[in-house]
TrEMBL record:
It comes from the Eukaryota. SUPFAM superfamilies: Thioredoxin-like. It comes from Crassostrea virginica (Eastern oyster). Gene3D superfamilies: Glutaredoxin. PANTHER family: NUCLEOREDOXIN-LIKE PROTEIN 2. CDD domains: TryX_like_family. It holds the Pfam family Thioredoxin_8. Residues 29-192 form the Thioredoxin domain. PROSITE patterns: THIOREDOXIN_2. GO terms for biological process: photoreceptor cell maintenance; sensory perception. This is Nucleoredoxin-like protein 2.
Length: 215
């Protein structure tokens, strides 16, 4: 896959798409009864009231989320015991890199059988990184087929264009840790040293587009 192909692949795969953060699965606090009573609007007035579409918590635009950074594509599932062994190692490296303000992001592509299983695995075992929404089955399958993933766990490290840096990310994390990351970063050739995707960026919100769902 050359640079031109990489650009076209990510632009095609991620155009108008969204990733989620863990905030997506955190239930908003329920408003108390007093607040509801205070804000009560009669039915006749509600009919004429303009409805403002609220942003969806934990939903972020995909392309800006992976811009100018080293990106790890994590293909994994909670039912896979080697996955459960590997993810804590990856989480430790991710947290180390975040502490050192190194440009690195991860996108989790779930192979779990239900959204409830994905939610449990993502919330309880993963780091504060991104995931493809479970209901966007088409995007998850597009990533699987594009990167020819046939076994789990799989960590494929790519440039922000989608061009592959290494398909042996799992082994490199296990054997080399931070040194492995330094090599990925050199190959990625990031602009101005790369972009740190801070929590303020990752926790931004966007309005849910029905096209983001796999109907």
């Amino acid at each position: 896959m050359d640079e031109k192909e990489g650009i076209s692949i990510f632009q095609e795969l991620l155009k108008d798409k969204s990733f989620i953060t863990k905030d997506f699965y955190i239930e908003p606090e329920q408003e108390d009864k007093k607040s509801e009573d205070f804000n009560y609007v009669p039915e006749k007035e509600r009919a004429n009231k303009v409805v403002v579409e609220e942003p969806v918590r934990g939903l972020v635009d995909a392309l800006p989320s992976v811009e100018n950074t080293v990106l790890g594509l994590l293909f994994s599932a909670g039912w896979c015991s080697p996955c459960r062994e590997f993810v804590p190692l990856l989480r430790d490296l991710y947290e180390e890199l975040q502490m050192k303000r190194c440009p690195f992001q991860i996108v989790f592509i779930s192979f779990d059988k239900t959204e409830e299983k994905m939610k449990e695995y993502f919330m309880d075992h993963h780091g504060e990184w991104l995931a493809i929404p479970f209901n966007d089955k088409a995007l998850r399958e597009a990533f699987r087929s594009t990167y020819d993933v046939n076994s789990l766990p799989k960590l494929i490290v790519v440039k922000d264009t989608g061009e592959v840096i290494t398909k042996t990310g799992r082994k490199e994390v296990q054997d080399r840790g931070f040194i492995g990351y330094r090599n990925w970063r050199l190959v990625a050739n990031l602009k101005d040293g790369g972009k740190l995707h801070s929590s303020s960026i990752i926790k931004s919100e966007r309005t849910l587009d029905p096209k983001d769902s796999d109907a």
